[in-house]
Amino acid sequence: MVVTVQAQGDRILTLTSDQQSYPVDLYLDILVDPAGTLTIEDVTQPAIAAQFVPNTKRSPGFGITDAAIWARFDTHNATETLDWRLVFGDAQLAHIDFYYPAADGDGFVHERSGYATPPAERPSPYPHFVFDLDLEPAAQTPVYLRMQDRFTVQFWLTLWPKALFAQQDHTYFLWLGLAYGMLGLMAVYNVVVFALLRKRQYLYYLLFLTGTTLWLAMRDGIVPLYLPPNFLEGGNIALRSLASAITMIFGIMFVRAFLELPERVPWFDLIMRSLIGIVILMLLVVLITQRGSVLMLLLTLSVIAAAILGGVLVWRQDRRRAGIFLLAWVSFLVTVATRNLITAGLPLDMRIISLWEYLSRILLFGLLSVALADQINLLRRRSQEAEDASRTNEDRFRSLFEHSPIGIGISDAHGVIEQANTAYTEMVRLSEAEIVGRSHLEMLAPEDRARSRLLFQQVLDGSRDFFQSEDRYLRKDGSVVWGLRTVAALRNPDGSIRNTFGIVSDVTERKRQEAELRRYSEQMEELVTARTAELERGQEQLVTLNRASQAINAVALEREQLFVAVRAAVAWLMPADFVAISLVDDERQEVEDVFLTGPHGRQPGRRTPLAGSFVAAMLARDLTLKVDDFATAPAAFKGHWFGSEQDTRSGLAVILRRGQQGVGLLTVQSSEPNAYTANDRSILESFAAHVSIAMENADLHRQAQRG
C-alpha cells in the first residue's frame, strides 16, 4: 500500500497492483453533524469542507449517538483496474449514504444502504454493506459517506478490486458457515443429550446458544435480509435486544442449574434471579422506547461477571464442576467487555474483535458442552456406583430376607403374597408354594380378619404409613399361633403402591406369659381386696370389741346379765349361731356349761367329767382351736362342740383364764363353713380376756354379798 500525503495535509489513498485490499480508515476525514441536517452539497462547500478532521483511529467509533457522521477520502488509482468495491466490516449501521462523482462530472452518484434499507434497494445483496465504485485509472476520486444509527456508530472500511472481493467473499462465507456450523453441531449434540436425559441445564444451554446465535446473525446482517421492509429499523433493534435478553436470561438459568446455586449458594441464587427480572424490565424499556441499548450492554457485562462470581463461589465446593465453567466464561467476558469499550469509543481494531467474537462464543459453548459432558460422565459414575450399591443392598436384603429369624412376607398392592421367607413358612407350618398367591388375610383366624382388612386399607389409601397388630395365625394342622406383625407399603415416585410387606414375629409364648401374668395379677388383686376387707373388718371388730368390753363391764356384777351381754357382744364381733361358756369345777373335777345359746335360744347347761374332756385337752395344750368345716375336719378336732353337723359347720374355741391359769372355754360356732378368719380368732382371744375379768369381778361381788 502506497500512501501519498501532500505537504498541505491532503491524504490520498493510492491504489497499486502490489496489494490486494486497502484498509481505508486511516485515510478518512471525519465531520460530525449533531443535527443530522447537512447534505452532500453542504459538506462539499469550502466552509464546511474545512471542518473535516483527519481520522487517526483504526475502526473509528463514536459511541452511542444520534449525530450523523460524515466521512470522506480521496483515492488515486495507479492500476488498470476499473471496478472496485467499498466494503463495511459488519452490518451494524442503520443508515448509510454513499456519494462519489458522476462520470459526466455533474454532481455525485448517490446510493443508500444499511440495515434500515430494504435488501432490494441496496446496491449489493450482501449481508454486509457493499458499494460498487468505478475508479478511472490514473485519476483521483473523492468519496463521501454519511452514517447514522440510533444505537452506536462504529465501522471499518476496506477497498477491494471487484474480482478479488469475489474470492474473499467466498472465503468469508466459508469461515462464517464453519462458525455457525460448529455452533449448530453443539446444538444438535445437546438436543440429543437433552432428549435422553431430560436435564434442565441442557434445555437452558440450548436456549442460551439460540439467543447467542440470533445475536450473531443480527450483527452479521443475515436476519435483516428476511425482515419485512417496514420492520427493518425498529425490528432490527427489537430483535437485537430480544436476542441479548434471551442470551442473558437463559445464560443465567444455565448458570443456576449447572452450578446448582439454589442448593450450594442460596443467597447468590437470589441475586441471579433478580438479574432475570432486571433483564426483562430493560427489554420492555428498549422495545417501547427504542432507547436504552447501552444499558443492555452494561447489563450483559453484569450477567457475565455474575456468572464468573458464581463459578468462583462454587469453586470452593466443587473444583471439577467450576474449573471448565470459569475458563469458558472468562474468555467470553473479555470479548463482551472489549465490545462495550469499543461501543463507548475506545479506539480498537474491530477486525480482530470481530473474529474473536466468533471464537470466544465457540470456545464458550464448546467448553460448556465439555463441562456438561463431564457431568454426564459424573452421572454415569454415580449411576454405576448406585447400581453397585443397589446390587450390594439387594444381596444384603436377600440374605437378610432368607436368614432373618423374623417372618417376612412381600405382597402386591392388593395384599396377595408374592414371597415369604423361611421364618414365615415355619411359623405358619406351610411351604412357600402353599403361601404364594394367597391373600395375607387368609393366613389369619377369621375373627381377626375384619380389623386387619380395615388397617390394611388405611395403609393403601395413605391415611397411615403402617400398622402394627397382634393376630392369630392358622397353621396347617389347625393349631393357632400368635404373631406380632408390622405392615407397610412401598410406593413409586408418583405415589402409587409398588408392594406391601409385613414383618411377623411369633409371640405365642409371650401371649401365654401375659395370660399367666394377668391371672396372677387378678389373683393378687383378689388377695389384696380380701386382705383389705379383712383389715377393714378387723378395724371394725376392734371398735366393736371395745364397745363389747364396755357392755360387759357395765353388767359385770351380775353373772346372768354378763352371759347375755357376752352373747350380744359376740354377735357384734363375728358370725355366732352357737355361743357357749364352759367352766372347770375343781372341787368336783367336772366341766359345767354355765351358758349355752343356739339358734333356738338359751339351752340348759350340762356337766361332764373333766378327765378326758375336750376342755381338759384344750387347757392342757393351752391353745385356741379354729375348725373351718366340721364335715371335713378330723374326728379329734370335733371334740366338745354343740349342735349337730347340720346346725354347725365351723367354730372357734378360746381359753378363759384367771390370771395365768385356764379356767374354761369360750366357744362360738357358725352354720356356715369357713366363717372365721385368723383375725376373728385374735379378736375372740382378746374378748375372752375381758370376759374372764368380768366373770372374776362377778364372783367377787357375789362372795361379798354372801359374806
Total discrete domains: 4
Shape category: rod-shaped
Work out the strand percent: 15-25%
Assign the structural class, choosing from mainly alpha, mainly beta, alpha/beta, alpha+beta, or little secondary structure: alpha+beta
Unreliable stretches? 1-9
Rg calculated over all Cα atoms:
61 Å
Described by strand count, sense and barrel closure, the largest sheet is:
8 strands, mixed
Contiguous helical run count: 18
Number of strands: 24
Output mean pLDDT.
Answer: 82
End-to-end Cα distance: 180 Å
Q: Helical proportion?
A: 40-55%
Could you please describe the fold and organization of this structure?
This protein is α+β, with helices and mostly antiparallel strands and 707 residues long. It folds into four domains: 2-163, Immunoglobulin-like (Sandwich), CATH 2.60.40.2380; 199-377; 404-506, Beta-Lactamase, CATH 3.30.450.20; 541-706, 2-Layer Sandwich (Beta-Lactamase), CATH 3.30.450.40. It is built from 18 helices and 24 strands. α4 (200-219) packs antiparallel against α10. The radius of gyration is 61 Å and the shape is rod-shaped. Mean pLDDT is 82; it is low at 1-9.
How do you describe this structure in short?
With 707 residues, this protein is α+β, with helices and mostly antiparallel strands. It contains 18 helices and 24 strands.
